[in-house]
Amino acid sequence: MNLTLPPLSLYIHIPWCVKKCPYCDFNSHALPADIDAERNETSYIEALLKDLTTEIPLSSDRKLESIFIGGGTPSLFSATAISQLLDGVRALIELKPRAEITLEANPGTADAAYFAGYRQAGVNRLSIGVQSFNDAHLRNIGRIHSAQQALDAFALASEAGFHSINLDLMYALPGQSLDQAMDDLKQAIALKPQHLSWYQLTIEPNTLFSSQPPDSLPSHEKMAEISEAGIALLEEHGFKQYEVSAFATEGHQCRHNLNYWQFGDYIGMGAGAHGKLTSLDGDIRRRRKQRSPAAYVESLHSGDALSSENLLQDEDLLLEFMMNVLRLNHGVPAAVFEQRTGLSLQAIQLRLLHARRAGLMEQNPEVLRATELGRRFLNNLLVMFS
Asked: Model confidence over 221-233: pLDDT tens digits?
């Protein structure tokens, strides 16, 4: 067995939003208007840190490469609360020097004091959920901020000292033309962020858009046209595509997400969070936490918040590995397959041969990498490994 312990990251889930977006299928919950914010922050952070104590024995004494605080809307929590959270994490588990610490923020909750406080607390990367700079399109997808608030949020983040900022943008929005999609990208590029996440609006099951689809969604042909034009525009302005929907300037790839896509390990903390952990004896497990915020906090009073755990079998490992690494433009060295799964590369040679003959994977046997055609038809490629 060639399996080795991969890098370890930490994901922290803050499950509340001001309002649930109609396209969102994440574990997020509208914040009650009468909630005592300070008390809620304190009790939830206490629960998070108790949760971490139950996970640390499974970490095999590895240091954290990165932390990602996602949601929901983490920027609903005050800078003081985020500082208490990160101080608590550092007291329980060691971080590597210059570890990447990302916090997601929405323009509608942007606050200059919060941003400066997040930076002081140790957050060194901010991800701002802009989605569009067109007010009509923002309303169509249920966002509560305006284009001007998005611009203000970026300015506040820059003034607070953030030198690594991601902007989330969506395309294929209801009624959106090619020119409008390119205008969104041009406005984002003009701000000079270090990273852009640019992805297509998809209608996910169990969302409001699933039961009440929006009108005037672009055709598949129009979506492809927008994608092709947008990738070319981003490349022209120095944003290198390194994953299906991730574009970065030199040296600013998201290290936390790269760890996911390279099949690294991560601890999942928070309501509905899940993690992947490799043990010293070679077992690889998925661990999932209680989805309900109330049940999550309550369960940690008496024990842990684990809702399910399963040992990944060979076929699970094969498919999950390929689902992640084939999203990367440069793929991974073939040796990483054995290192991260413990499986023999020889055992999947026939599947690799079929994928290469179909033109969906590169011919180089030293690299596991999808071709441009393979990335375009990724689902078809993954069927070969399922």
From this structure: 999 999 999 999 9
Task: Give the CA dihedral 90, 11, 160, 110, nearest 10 degrees.
Answer: -130
Which residues in the chain belong to E strands, given as ranges?
A: 8-14, 16-17, 29-30, 64-71, 95-105, 125-131, 165-171, 195-200, 240-243, 246-248, 265-269, 274-278, 284-289, 306-311, 332-333, 367-368
Last residue of a domain, one of 213, 237, 259: 259
Q: How many CB atoms lie within 10 A of CB 341?
A: 25
Average pLDDT over residues 50-68: 96
Query: Does a structural domain hold residue 301?
Result: no
CA torsion, ordered 334, 324, 371, 169, to nearest 10 deg? -150
Q: Which two tokens stand for residue 9?
A: 């990251």
Measured distance CA(244)–CA(328) in Å, rounded: 7
Residue 137 bridge partners (DSSP)? none
Helix and strand numbers (H, E) in the chain are 15, 16
Q: 360 is in which domain, residue-wise?
A: 314-386
pLDDT single digits (tens) 162-214 = 999 999 999 999 999 999 999 999 999 999 999 999 999 998 998 999 999 99
